[in-house]
Amino acid sequence: MSHTSVYSSVKITNLNTLSAVANLTELGQLDIGKQTVRMFGHQSVEAVAKLEIKGWRYPLAIDKEGKLWYDNWGSEVGSMDNLGRLLQAYSKAVVVAEANQNPDVYSYWVNDLDNGDVEVILDYAD
Questions:
Q1: What are the residues whose beta carbons fall under 8 Å from the beta carbon of 97, sequence distance 6 or more?
Q2: Overall domain count for the chain
Q3: Distance in angstroms (rounded) separating the CA atoms of residues 78 and 48
Q4: Residues 89, 21 contacting (CB under 8 angstroms)
Q5: pLDDT for 29-62, tens place per residue?
């Protein structure tokens, strides 16, 4: 029986940003480098990085396409929320970095909404 799933809501495009966010939020520890990541039983994923998430029994694997493979079987109750918070912080960091690099963006605002969503407002130069 397979426990391994793919998290399809976010694609990791910048491992350095993910590492910085993981360290800043203290929700995980990223190990960058090509490796085989073991999951439940004999399941494994060929990865470019693995992320040890706080409260998880097994690491999350990031493949060369930026897909997230995970198995949170046997993890602490509520620890899936740690993945959500980490990926939300990563997504915000990517948007802010891209806004800072875009010469057409005059200013931006990032707002955390009560329902957990993130609102991003970009103000473009005339």
A1: 14, 17
A2: 1
A3: 27
A4: yes
A5: 999 999 999 988 888 999 999 999 988 989 999 9
Q: Which residue has the tokens 């995970």?
A: 70
Q: Residue 60 forms beta bridges with which residues?
A: 51
pTM equals: 0.84
d(CA 27, CA 53): 6
Residues 6+ positions from 38 with CB-CB distance below 8 Å: 44, 58
- Short-list 87, 108, 88, 106, CA closest to 96: 108
Rounded Cα gap, residues 122 and 38, in angstroms: 41
Domain hosting 15: range is: 5-124
Determine the length of the chain.
Answer: 126
Burial of 59 (0-12, 13-18, 19+ CB in 10 A): buried
